What does this fold into?
Amino acid sequence: MIWKGLGVLAGAAGVVMLGVVGLSWAVVHVVPDFGEGFAEADSHPDGSVDFVPSGIGGQLRVSGDREATMELGEGFIEGPGFVLAGSNGKLFFESGPLSVATVYVEDLAFFPEPEDCELSPGQINEDLGLAAAHLECPQLNDIRDNGSISVEGYIALPADMVIERDLPDLGGTVTVGDETWEIAEAYLLIGPEFNFGGEPEPVRLDMWTSDYESGLNFEMNRETESLMLSSVYSAGGESEPAPGSCSISTEFLVQVNPTDTIERLDFDCEAVDVTGAGTVTITGNVVFHKSTVGESDH
It folds into this structure.
């Protein structure tokens, strides 16, 4: 399956919830650090992007009625888009396909059309979920006719905004006694440690069949990141297995962006009491989406 842009978090009903919540992921405060090879890439007259980024950010040259260098060392999601910001400027990006929606440089504001700026994807940092790109906007006009500028340089953004990749399909198969469940959705959302009332916020991996009539719930220990089967939902109702009844392992598959990964869960549970089915064995292999959501000051 090919996922692109912030739509990586969208899907059927359960994953839509994850997409909406997941867009508030932590503000990334960084000193612009694009990685080895940035200086060489920046000097290429053809605008080629041959460096691997090691941090979100941007370095752009501004010419025309303003002469400046934009050092964009802060990145965060805002609404349906992504923002790169610095002391003297800010860029708003839209995804699917990636485009520049707004440019602020000092006291000037620009709202380019998609064709006004060219974005050339570069290399990807698979470990961090980042991708480089060359950005060029030859002529932007301030909306109040206060000036015109050109913008050119390099940026590093969450990889799923910039490039398309073949990513594993979510879901898998779970066997509950004599029944086989085809899991259509599987997601794990790691939010703030405490809720608004100051109570510990549990972390759960939820997986469901397409009709939402059957599913499993695993609870994660924040300190050890270990998982424990906590609930089984079936036609007979909800069951709560005894702790320690399962052998569980996870495998990392791919870093989608700095806060999202795709992983696989393998589990084998013996002698689980399931309402309506009796004491059964539960086994499964399920690919799930893991998203880490932090506090945001925007």
